[in-house]
Amino acid sequence: MTRYVLRRLLGMIPTLLVLLFIVVSLVRLLPGNVVDILLADGRATAETKAQLAAKLGLDQSLPEAYVRYVGGVIRGDLGSSLWTDVPVTHMIMSRAPVTAEVAGIAILVSILISIPLGVTSAVRQDSFLDYALRSGSIAGISLPSFVAAQAIVVLPALWWSKSIPFQYQTFAENPSQHLMIILPAAFVLGLRLSATIARMMRTTMLDVLQQDYMRTARAKGLTNFGIIVKHGLKNALIPVVTLLGLQFAALVGGSVITESMFALPGIGRLLLDAITRRDYPVIQGVVVSVGILVMATNLLVDLSYGYLDPRIRYS
């Protein structure tokens, strides 16, 4: 296992280097002169332009800027904001707990809802309940996140004169207000994920139910519940876990819309604000951080296969 993890970590290095190269090239690929765009008020001096160009690494060649940025990433230095001069690493770390909490609740709720629904739909194949659950999952996949967010924000205000408190407070400061804004955001973020996992769970469970070892378990006189939970569920979860790892990037991307609509001070809101202000070091830092997180998530997904299926060995 240790050797496998080390090989995977070494294999992630080329992917990370390519990601860093794209991030460094981002500023240079933009049309026009980035420095002139950022200093568009016309009052910038030549010295100010030179300082900004040096901060963006535009005073160096692309290979030199790339090597410098890679060295900074190794040291944990992602640069500083163009407007506040605050280190990007500090900005991301201060916003990460909010995004992690919303994403964690979204994943937990989606798993608790989608797996039972997917298994039930497979066990009751072609029944009215199966058709209803399949229709609901299709509706969940088709519904855009921003529409669900708007409905949660607007409809309670119209029907019951209740609105979500958009003033974010930590759980320690005000537990009830904290949950009133975190839980709706997590629901919106996990809605599409729940529908996708439910459909995948139904498909994989239908395949598992037809396997020979499931027939053998029935012949031994085991209960239907025991057969599904002990013999079927773990094998059916392998594709679902894979899908969950692939959907993680989309989950983080969806936080941009969700955090903006619910006024949450997370990484998604940080990225949107940085794009609006053209704060390129912050944009680059967020992209690199999310990329590393996605690669780490895929590694954890691969390691989970050995637990779900003992026949899988890492050598």
Structure write-up:
This protein is mostly helical and 315 residues long. It folds into two domains: 74 residues; 218 residues, Orthogonal Bundle (MetI-like fold), CATH 1.10.3720. It is 77% helix and 0% strand. It is built from twelve helices and no strands.
Which key phrases capture this entry?
single chain, 315 residues, mainly alpha, 12 helices, globular
- Bin the strand percentage: under 5%
What is the CATH homologous superfamily assignment of the largest domain? MetI-like
In N-to-C order, the SSE pattern is: HHHHHHHHHHHH
Count of structural domains: 2
Helical segment tally?
12
Overall 3D geometry? globular
Top-tier CATH class of the largest domain: Mainly Alpha
Specify Rg, calculated over alpha carbons.
24 Å
Topology:
Elements: H1 2-29, H2 34-38, H3 46-55, H4 62-75, H5 88-123, H6 128-142, H7 145-159, H8 175-209, H9 212-219, H10 224-261, H11 267-277, H12 280-308
Helix pairs in contact: 1-4, 1-12, 5-6, 5-8, 5-10, 5-12, 6-8, 7-8, 7-10, 8-10, 9-10, 10-11, 10-12, 11-12
Outline of this structure?
With 315 residues, this protein is an all-alpha fold. Helices cover 77% and strands 0% of the residues.
